[in-house]
Write a structure and sequence with these properties.
heterodimer, A: mainly beta, Protocatechuate 3,4-Dioxygenase, subunit A, 5-stranded mixed β-sheet, 5% helix, disordered C terminus, B: 9-stranded mixed β-sheet
């Protein structure tokens, strides 16, 4: 242990645990052993570079990816991707995917009997700008039922996939909407045990992002931790 | 530690329905078939019942064969691959053995690939490292391998040689008849 590559620390309590009985799928999939906390090496401290060439026009406008306009409430979702010191994470890939305005995913295995929208797939991507800012135009997703427990409904959410400045920061998460009454009964959201930490997943309505006559705006900043590995003593 | 740090955004599960959002980059290999030293890395993700996980997203990230990362590599080197596991829980990626890269104290480590797995039922991803069973010399002096005292846990970190140029690395989310739970890693915030 001379190199101290494994840190004698518990994993952060802010993230959800692997095993969370209220979310049934964790039972056979969540590891039982505690992960070893690794002092990141060169591999974990580097990160892929996704260039502009991978982003096509309209990848960031989910309402403009088909011949017609999708059904639903058009919204703008925008915010900053930051490290825990508040520094912008620039030119980095942000991916999103979501259900449509009826709560149905464009996925073969989604059997929720709500209509698909031929003008909405629900996947998008963009690169952050020099201030770490991302911006998507989309449709507000709806809540949908799921089989976790009797009368279980997921609150409306948008999935986000994020890369930082180090691969150890890799994050996939979900953004929720303010004032959604389903959040407090949702086992996935409440796997985050500290209410103040859960609040970080709830976007804020923002007049400044609103496009008059066209779209309401939601602001959501994302902070990727783990960017500052413990320095050598 | 400064107390003025911003609180990190917590993780949530990738869920079951991510294919249409993430598959756009899920068919790229790290190198072409005729690349010198190309290897195939393949394996299966298993759950705690020993069943394959057909709805996982697997990603790898690694140095090139000289131990370099972008932007110090050739422009064609992405270093990254994503796969959505198939109905049998399998993934398959063509890559190269990475060159040795420095660890947290600058010492050289054995060649390894970093892997992250997301799935429905995982509220946060699992991170692990893939070492190569046929690199016994380098593995013997690797600081991380030497720091893992549990030999069973350590044994889960090696890709086995299936045939010339083909390596197999399974991810076991829990103990099952398929073998012991893979050793996973976390990072300090």
């Amino acid at each position: 242990m001379a190199s101290g590559v494994i840190l004698a620390k518990p994993q952060s309590e802010e993230d959800p645990p692997y095993r969370f009985p209220a979310y049934q799928s964790t039972a056979l999939r969540g590891p039982n052993r505690t992960p070893l906390i690794l002092r990141p090496g060169s591999t974990e401290l580097h990160v892929p570079v996704f260039g502009e060439s991978r982003i096509r026009p309209n990848d960031d406008d989910l309402t403009a990816q088909h011949a017609g306009e999708p059904i639903g409430e058009k919204i703008v979702v925008s915010g900053k991707l930051l490290d825990s010191n508040g520094r912008p994470i620039r030119n980095q890939l942000v991916e999103i995917w979501q259900a449509n305005a009826c709560g149905r995913y464009a996925h073969a295995l989604d059997d929720h009997p709500a209509p698909l929208d031929p003008n909405f797939t629900g996947g998008g991507r963009t690169l952050t700008d020099n201030d770490g800012r991302y911006r998507f135009t989309t449709i507000k997703p709806a809540a949908y039922p799921w089989g976790n427990h009797p009368n279980a409904w997921r609150p409306a959410h948008i999935h986000f996939s994020l890369f930082g400045t180090a691969f150890a920061q890799r994050l996939v998460t979900q953004m929720y909407f303010p004032g959604d009454p389903l959040i407090e009964s949702d086992p996935i959201a409440n796997s985050i045990r500290d209410k103040k930490v859960l609040d970080r997943l709830i976007s804020a309505f923002d007049w400044d992002l609103t496009i008059p006559g066209t779209a309401l705006g939601y602001r959501w900043d994302i902070v990727l931790g783990g960017s500052n590995p413990t320095p050598e003593a | 530690m400064s107390t003025s740090k911003l609180g990190a955004t917590p993780s949530q599960t990738i869920g079951p329905f991510f294919k249409f959002g993430t598959e756009w980059i899920a068919d790229e290999d790290l190198v072409a078939q005729d690349y010198r030293g190309a290897i195939l890395l393949a394996g299966t993700v298993f759950d705690g019942a020993g069943n394959p996980v057909p709805d996982a997203m697997v990603e790898i990230w690694q140095a090139d064969d000289n131990g370099k990362f972008p932007p110090e590599t050739s422009e064609s080197w992405m270093g990254f691959a994503r796969r959505l596991t198939d109905i049998g829980g399998q993934y398959r990626i063509r890559t190269v053995k990475p060159g040795p890269v420095p660890g947290s104290s600058g010492e050289l480590q054995a060649p390894h690939i970093f892997m992250v797995v997301f799935a429905r039922g995982l509220l946060k991803p699992v991170f692990t490292r893939i070492y190569f069973a046929d690199e016994s010399g380098a593995n013997a002096t690797d600081p991380l391998l030497n720091a893992i005292e549990d030999s069973v846990a350590r044994s889960t970190l090696f890709a086995s040689v299936k045939s010339e140029g083909t390596y197999e690395f399974d991810v076991r989310l829990q103990d099952s008849e398929r073998g012991p739970e893979t050793q996973f890693f976390g990072f300090d915030d």
